[in-house]
Amino acid sequence: LQFQTSIPFCVVGSNQLIEAKGKKVRGRLYPWGVVEVENPEHNDFLKLRTMLITHMQDLQEVTQDLHYENFRSERLKKGGRKVEDEEVNKDQILLEKEAELRRMQEMIARMQAQMQMQRQGGEGDSSATHGYKV
Length: 134
What we know:
Blueprint: E1 17-20, E2 23-30, E3 33-36, H1 45-54, H2 56-77, H3 82-121
Antiparallel strand pairs: 1-2, 2-3
Protein name: Septin-type G domain-containing protein
GO molecular function: GTP binding
InterPro entries: G_SEPTIN_dom, P-loop_NTPase
């Protein structure tokens, strides 16, 4: 209840030391007076910090649940699991790579056959070894 009466929190920060009422305090100097950072009558920082520390676990759990439920809702709207889509995509890529590998192996076999034929047909002709057809 103590925190609810303070909402919205009024938080003031400063890194300057100012003299107020005869003593040095961290605060801000305004034409109407001094706002002291560490004075609970001027600043709700201590209340806010206490609330955050005492309710940190609740905040984490609520945030995690909220993000998970949003993620889950979006996934259901899209009609399924992304994992299945990734597996199908991986399978398709694998099939394409295998087809490319077969084409390259066939091309290498043709090139080797051509080289073999040129060696057999032109052993006496040195120019035949330099005229490979790809």
